[in-house]
Structure prediction request, 482 residues.
Amino acid sequence: MLLSIALSLPYVQTQIARYGTDFLNKEFGTNINVDKIAISVFGGVKLKGVLILDHHNDTLISADRLQTNILSFRKLANTDLRFGSLRAERLGFHLKTYKDETTSNLDVFVKAFDTGKPGTGKFRLKADDLYVTNGRFRLTNENSVSPRVLDFRKLNGELEDFFIKGSDVTANIKKLSLLDHRKLFVENLAAKFTYTKTNIILNELSLKTAESTLSGAVRLTYVKEDFKDFVNRVDFDFRVDKASVSSNELNYFYNEFGINQQFYLSTRLKGVLNDFVLHNLKLLDPNQSEIIGSVNFKNLFDKKGPGFYMNGNFDRVTSNYANLRNIMPRILGKSLPKILEKFGTIDLVGDVVLTKQDIDADLYMMSELGEVETKLSVQNFNKPQSAIYTGYVHLTDFNISTLINDNTIGKVSLSLDVDGRGFTKESLNTVIKGEISSLPFNNYNYRNLTVDGRMKWPFFQGKLNSNDPNLRMSFDGLLDMS
Prediction:
């Protein structure tokens, strides 16, 4: 009876616990410390000051207070920690890969329990329910250009089936709030979470912040060395089933968006951050801009490389120049051709390849100026006086006067092959070949013209055939249109 009373004393229990941790530390070369422990006769356990150091004597796991019940003391002795409900105050978990090392501190810790004998090397920690109060989770890789991969503070929430098996971690996150190190506060996150040596997975993801909501799934695929060059080597598969996203909060991660913009979208992002495709993108904004299609982006995070690249296959784009600039990251919006502003609201379908200076377009577009069908390559498009272009243009009832600032020309309908430079009257110097079905000029609408020559405003040098009822002629020479 005296022995039972003695064993029930917190001091005695703490000494026994310290003996146990000392044994583990000596046997396996670990560094596990517990300040105080209290165990009830019913298996309830309270621990204070839990600290597990890694092989560099830095914190791997820590907690101010743990409260739980141990389901099997026999398995506990074999490093198979099985708990029912586990409550953790100020729980800290720092998953870290040190400079010039390829395995994480958790991998090293788990490996310490592998003696090489059958049945060993199977460290397990399982909790049916884990309640976290004011916790912190960090994922660090000192071999990366940006070592701090994740740093979540103010973790509060409930997890089911929390399981550490070797170096793998799984959990059903029922609800979780956190503060990201970029200062974004997540009001609630729910997901089925998996971490392994090659994947981070969040299935059935539901996310809510002050200004955004998102549902979908995320999978990161990698080998350890990939974190050295995260944006070019870690592969993302991010399915967005439904989202309302604030540009203010996107700027925490990629500070290239305008303020106070809201996007409604669904898509599937696949690839690395510097070369990814948005498959089946559907995007809307409150201004009724709409983008539907698939888009490949390259070099968005590469400030020293060849510059950004966008290749879009669009089923529909409805917007205008100002709204497109607001929707797109600044690195893209700044590169939209300024001349697009004159088109007003557009509705287009087709393919567009865009870089900082060049554009290749194969598309059909309705605009406030008229209809455009084109397959055109343009270099230096943001310099109207020196832009170089080649391709095919079909215009229907197109108000070209607004485009070139010349009121003597009306709405034009034509089909032309073009090869030249300049989008202003003063700089226009292009070879044109094709048909002009309607050309209002100086108060007369010329019809049924064919041209083959060079236009260098105000002169045309070449062949012009006219079947206009009032001007039937064939011309080969120099024509002054001033």
Residues 33 and 51 are 5 Å apart (CA to CA). Confidence is low (pLDDT under 50) at residues 1-9. The two ends are 117 Å apart (CA to CA). The longest strand covers residues 124-141.
